[in-house]
Amino acid sequence: MLKSETSLIAWIRQQRTLDPAAVPIPPGDDMAGLNLAGQGLVLVTTDIRLDGVHFRTDSASPRQIGYKAVAVSLSDAAAMASQPRGVVVAVALPRDWSMEQARELTQGLLDAADAYDCPLVGGDVTSWGQPLAINATLISTESGIAAVRRNGAKSGDAIMVTGELGGSLASGRHLTFPPRVREARAIAAAANLHAMIDISDGLSTDLGNICDESGVGASVYADRLPLTATAKTSADPLAAALNDGEDFELCFTCSPEDAERLLRDPPVAVRLTWIGAVTAGCERFLAFPDGRREPLVPRGFEHFR
Amino acid sequence: MLKSETSLIAWIRQQRTLDPAAVPIPPGDDMAGLNLAGQGLVLVTTDIRLDGVHFRTDSASPRQIGYKAVAVSLSDAAAMASQPRGVVVAVALPRDWSMEQARELTQGLLDAADAYDCPLVGGDVTSWGQPLAINATLISTESGIAAVRRNGAKSGDAIMVTGELGGSLASGRHLTFPPRVREARAIAAAANLHAMIDISDGLSTDLGNICDESGVGASVYADRLPLTATAKTSADPLAAALNDGEDFELCFTCSPEDAERLLRDPPVAVRLTWIGAVTAGCERFLAFPDGRREPLVPRGFEHFR
């Protein structure tokens, strides 16, 4: 049995040492970065989305599923503060789908592609006697703003998030969320971001990824997490904000001075919240107003569990 | 019911007009070409491969399946005479797979990536309670040789193929074939290729794609098709060469003068065969030595049938 996708990915990353001149951003970020011989950095991300894992064809419409397939890749492009340039999509369609369903799925792909000026430039269509699988691969470029990686967080940094967290699966927001492409670039243009990730697996996991890649710890202020209306009314609002996942908001770190400036004069309409501090060492914990501390355990969505 | 992937793809292509400055090579070729703002042409192809459709996990090893997943994308890069630069792979693993099987699959990806200097730079791993699905997306560049498209075939051109055709599924070659990446670039450097495609769906279908995109017809010399040993001993060798598919050889067109030169002084070790002529109009037919002609009907592999 597969123990976890994380341990498999860690193993895969150990198999080859990539030439940093050819691959300046190796696996471990939201996107890989290729240096195409004097053509600048080209960023690429690929995501496979599966019926019963990332969506359910019995409750989500084909158009929503198509939208989500491209939007998750756009969210990766946002996490690097990069400019999406094109997307290719491959689908394995259930053999009993109608042409109308397949067209609606395509319409969803185009909804996302159009909204973010990221043309659908190619793809692959196959049918099979199994549930829907859909893969999107997105290409982006820096276009004037240096790519923000996961590995630059520094002790003393402020930890910030966009929007509100939690309850995305329960509310259905995971099918309709707006990837923070423009917000990421506006924030990165206004402040010196040290690290950034999009919150797909849950803050506890994704902030943990920043810590892992940067070799730092984190203290998260439990009372300051911005909660969605759905999270607020859930049985455990804090756990919802930390672990539900599929928020597709941004988590980034910057100097406290930059954080203050972003909050004083926000470059974006979306809510920005200072939720914690990067610490030396590698401990990650939740800090409560009464001084109590709890370990921040990655409990976000991991598919193999 | 989905009638065919071809009609769905045709419909998708009608939905948006892409800016030719941003997308110089739109859908319809082996790869799409993006112009990344002064960074030259970046080519991209994506292919999803499915258990029971493109391979069978009960007969192919995980390592063979991994190799094939990347090799089919490398074959697309060959079809454009482009230089592979990096590949990303997303897998939906059956939940009952062992870590060992997942590692063997990865080893197969790396076998292909290593053999063609095309680093595996990223990916996505998810497990689900369904059969294996694996998607590869490959990025390539022109790197000194202009991309060869499908749409440049001219009446009077020679039609050429590399290697031998037919029987790939029966012989197992579809799991071990060498994508013709270096051969394509060597041939394109030695001659002015007007159109090229890799033979994945079968010559009858893929040559038909060149004809469709170029607005031309074709006459294929039935007695000159190069046959694999497996095709020669099959019930209908000619049909095997035309329709079996998964040959992953190259089919290209060039002037008869260039064809003669390529045959006289071959730039590659692989066999080259002059199998027909591009004709005006749009008729495609098989020409037999006795003067008989038969329509060349696309009977290659189409997944929805």
CATH superfamily of the largest domain in chain A: PurM-like C-terminal domain
Order of neighbouring strands in the sheet with most strands of chain A: 7-9-6-10-8-11-12
What is the total number of structural domains of chain A?
2
Task: Report the biggest beta sheet of chain A as strand number plus sense, adding barrel if it closes.
Answer: 7 strands, mixed
CATH class of the largest domain in chain A: Alpha Beta
- Could you spell the SSE succession of chain A in H and E letters? HEEHEHEEEHHEHEHHEHEEE
User: What number is the mean pLDDT of chain A?
Assistant: 93
Q: Please count the helical segments of chain A.
A: 9
The low-confidence runs of chain A, each spanning 5 or more residues with pLDDT under 50, are none
Shape category of chain A: globular
* Helix content estimate of chain A: 25-40%
Oligomer: homodimer
